[in-house]
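Re: the multi-chain job from yesterday

Posting the exact lines I submitted so nobody has to dig through the queue logs.
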Amino acid sequence: MVYSVIMAGGIGSRFWPRSREASPKQFLRVVGEETLLQQTLQRVSPLIPADRAYVITHERYADLTHRQLPGLESQQIMREPISRNTACCITYAAIRLLATDPEAVMVVLPADHLIEHENRFLEVLAKAIEAARVPDTLVTIGIKPTHPATGYGYIQFDASDDDTAHTVRTFAEKPDISTAERFLDSGDFLWNSGIFVWRADAILANIRHHLPRMWEAFKAAAPHMNTPAEGAAIRKAYHRSPRISIDYGVMERAENVRVVPGSFGWSDIGDWHAVYSLSRKNRHGNVLSGHVIVQDSSRCLVSGAERLIAVVGLNDIAIIDTEDALLVCHMDSTQQVKNVVDYLHAQQFQQYM
Amino acid sequence: MVYSVIMAGGIGSRFWPRSREASPKQFLRVVGEETLLQQTLQRVSPLIPADRAYVITHERYADLTHRQLPGLESQQIMREPISRNTACCITYAAIRLLATDPEAVMVVLPADHLIEHENRFLEVLAKAIEAARVPDTLVTIGIKPTHPATGYGYIQFDASDDDTAHTVRTFAEKPDISTAERFLDSGDFLWNSGIFVWRADAILANIRHHLPRMWEAFKAAAPHMNTPAEGAAIRKAYHRSPRISIDYGVMERAENVRVVPGSFGWSDIGDWHAVYSLSRKNRHGNVLSGHVIVQDSSRCLVSGAERLIAVVGLNDIAIIDTEDALLVCHMDSTQQVKNVVDYLHAQQFQQYM
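And the result, structure tokens for all chains:
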């Protein structure tokens, strides 16, 4: 059977001050009426019904997840005791699925991405699932780049084969702009979407091979899946596991990696500028929510809370208001918002994080 | 005797959202540790002691005035029942002073101006008081212009006479920029400071002549000054008076108007840009108060309240935060803040005014 595994444990620091440790990006209505997490579950439902959907998140977000996805059973929300990276999260999901379904195919989905053309996405996903049924194959979905983005990792594929799932030649880190332009021109580079499809046994075999310490940590937990001892066993496994991403820990090292290219209006909506770009604008190019008065301003994103906000004579400015913290940021500097959060951490201003 | 009459009834709409109907500009610490009202009283004290100081303001601000100037007696705070313009305010003050001192000389001072060089100001004021002792003479203080300001009215004086108090040739409304440049080049134009000095009987004679309806309205109130009937009599007078400024109603029409030029770092701090210009800046040219985190920003004015404010990648932006309303405004557009307040009035958003 095919299962979705929605990774919803991130803290979304570039969405400060709306995104906080208490309520990160995936739990917010960033674009549209539903939260990103709700959209993620909804989007795959034609291929994977809700009773085969799993959300994996930090235990502090389990209640929030429950409230946003009331249709899921408690056991469908997998609780991480501490924040590790994606390899740990995926290992837990794999051993959990294998406990009841040795043939399980996992569709791993970040909970905080946006996809504009859902039908086109589902077509690509169906192809990826098909490709992942081949034993010992790791499949990822790659996005056909529309511009030389420097904020994404890239995947180079072998353009000589005819398959819908191409052989991956290499994974590349976030490039500088000239490298990104070269990637775009070459025609054989795709954006790394972070969406993966594989058999649970295939990814576990690769983890055993490439991340033996992680395998050791989780091996002992496997027999306790779906028992009252699961929580304690997983806690022990997480504390013994290294912090490493699945990309770095497995994908860049594995042999049989395939990529299915797609083009479906994907965005990881990594910062406020991306939210602005993806939102419906008024005739002055402004995106406004809350109680806002605008004079002589254009291309602004204003996300209000309770208070009245007056915007006068501004261009290309993001204003994000919350009850206890306010961000005013130029659209060209929205990536730097992460630095504000780093500063808050360094200063231990816990109340604003 | 010489008395000060401090006009403190304005609502300061260009200082929204800090300035509200409940607490206008003159009651705020705009620059420095004291409020503008406190600074105004303090500034003239070497020439006019506090027991000869009068504040005239809307009755809703009487308690606030008392709290800020606890040294004043209750009768030194004159209560206007409704907001009229400056002619009405000055007429009331004149009849009140004449009730106890037929020789009274009034120094009329707006409560919301800033003066950098107080000693130089006092020298000029002393000359103006001297000039105003001549019967039937209206004296105003004119500021030597430092740049072609379009936000001030101008006074043209007769440069041919040698007096310290020059004959006024004409009053000019706020000019456009090319006219302002001509005024500056001519050498015989001064900024209209709104500071006036005259005998109370002289200004009343002129009001009788030029504003007969106002004279009629107040004539009946005069015998009730300093009695329990004063409040009711003044209320009646105000309701019967036209709304007109002393400049337009009297100064532009009167015969014997003299101006004493001065140069003492005067500003009417008419908007947030002026506050920025007059404030001490850090090495990035920012003026910051409250709990503010700044990244990669310069020439900004951030006036915080309770909340944390993060400023990222901004230049030349004013951010004024209050509990229930926020202003974000480009420094070139600070005059337009008045339009926001006009809009709030039109929409009857009373709570934000």
